[in-house]
Each structure stands twice: as C-alpha cells, then as structure tokens.
Write a structure and sequence with these properties.
single chain; alpha/beta; TIM Barrel; eight-stranded parallel beta sheet; 12% strand
C-alpha cells in the first residue's frame, strides 16, 4: 500500500461527514486490532507507542523510546491493512531527535500517511509544561511539529487540552483538532477522575467555539475521559460541533477485556459427565 496523500485523506473524511457518518480514528497497536478496526469501518488507524502498554494488560503508559516504538509498529499494521490511512503518534519533545524535519521524514519512510502529536505534553499539567518549555522541549515543539508537517503537506491531527492549545494548533492549519478531555476511564485499568461527561462536553465546546470564532475550521474530533462508549459520542455530536471520535482504550483495550473474559466464561460453562 502506498502512503495516502493529505488531500486523499481529507477527501475521504469530508465524504463521511457529508453523508452524516462520524469519523472514527481507531487506536491500533497490533496487526489484528488494525485489521478488525478497518473491517469495522474505521477511517483512520492511529498507532500509539502507549498502545503496547494496553496490550500488556497495563494502564495506558509511556514505556521506553516512544518514537522508535511507534515506527517499529508501522510494518506490522501496514502488512495487514491495505486501504485505510495509518497515522503515527510522534513525540515532538524527544531529546534524541531534535530535528523535526528528519523525524517527520522517518515517520513517512516507514509508511505513515499522517501524524498526531502523541505522547502530548498538552495534558501533563502546568508544572511539567513549564519545565520542559524552559529547555526548549515544551508545547511549542508540538506546535512547531504540526507547522512543519503542514508545510510538507502531511496530514495532521493534534490533541489539545486547553483553549489556548486549540488556538495554537488551529492557527498552524492542523487538519483534525482533537479536544483531549483526560485519560480514558472504564474497563479494568481505566483512569478514573471526578469529572463528568457534562464537564467534558463543556470543555470540548469551549475549545471548538474559540477556534470557530476566529474563522478557523479544522475537522473536530473528540477523545478521552468519560467518552468511552458509542452512546457517549452521540451526546458529544448532539451538543458540540464534533463530527467524530478518536478511541484508543475504547477500541483496543475495553472491548478486548470484555470479549476475552466473556468467551472464557462461556467455555468454562460447558460441563461434561464421564464414568
């Protein structure tokens, strides 16, 4: 499969929204999940290094060299998926890869058709953000990453956690803006918080409205927090300008937990009698 161009991906996404079908970005950390997500109609397959922690039965965690791990996963995904764009999560503040243009080229070379700023410092709190910014490896690097990718005509997605983050990324021409309302809850190892779905929808709306007020119009997708089930996304679509969902734990962790537990219980429920 050849890398899909930015315009080819955008044309596909706009066709989905024109038909009133939501865009689905599916986190896929192994070939089987990617293959099944594509068969289920996912529009984008997003490869996160943190997905490996989910497949290990752990809470979503950053383990090891994120960029190296993500690039290493590309071949497995592309080996079994032939016509769905594969998007790579780039850690822009990687001190071992200071030249962002080289890093972008490396991600393209292994077969990614687009990029998303993940792991993202956007969600890591003001103390960490301030410390990393002081050494030139803060949020500004993620914004620069998107700006450089846009200049190279690479399809871009960006996680944002605040209104200012959303404005920063939208002003650089990002294709898909993804309000990130916290680590995903639910399942066996979800990150549970005191926020409610109402709170998260309000946060999403504030980010989107600030961007729209400036006349900027990226594709708005949602992610995280209490938005874990299809019914949750329905509410987001009804109450905000979001037209799709990016799911990681909601695609490759929670459904697997349920399915394997259920089938194991089914097998164990079959009894036999022998003399």
């Amino acid at each position: 499969m050849k890398n899909l161009s930015r315009q080819e991906i955008l044309d596909r996404l706009h066709a989905e929204t024109a038909a009133n079908r939501p865009i689905l970005g599916a986190g896929t950390s192994c070939g089987l999940i990617a293959k099944c997500a594509a068969l289920g109609g996912a529009d984008l397959l997003i490869v996160y290094s943190t997905g490996r922690s989910r497949l290990m039965g752990l809470p979503t965690s950053r383990i090891g060299d994120s960029n190296a791990n993500t690039m290493d996963m590309a071949g497995e995904i592309r080996n079994v998926v032939y016509d769905t764009p594969v998007i790579g999560g780039i850690e822009a503040w990687d001190p071992l890869r200071m030249d962002l243009d080289i890093l972008l080229g490396d991600f393209q070379a292994v077969g990614f058709s687009g990029i998303i700023n993940y792991p993202t410092i956007s969600t890591m709190g003001e103390t960490w953000r301030a410390r990393r910014s002081k050494v030139g490896l803060g949020w500004e690097r993620e914004v620069e990453l998107i700006e450089r990718a846009v200049a190279r005509n690479i399809f871009t997605m960006a996680y944002v956690a605040t209104v200012q983050d959303a404005l920063d990324m939208a002003s650089k021409g990002v294709d898909c803006l993804v309000p990130h309302v916290g680590a995903t809850g639910g399942g066996l190892v979800g990150h549970e918080t005191d926020s409610t779905l109402d709170d998260e929808i309000s946060n999403i709306s504030q980010m989107i409205e600030a961007v729209s007020a400036l006349g900027l119009n990226p594709i708005f997708l949602c992610h995280g927090g209490k938005i874990t089930e299809p019914s949750d996304t329905r509410r987001v679509y009804e109450e905000t300008q979001c037209v799709g969902f990016v799911g990681a734990s909601s695609i490759e962790r929670i459904p697997i937990e349920r399915a394997v537990k259920s089938i194991a219980e089914d097998f164990k429920s079959i009894t036999f009698s022998k003399e």
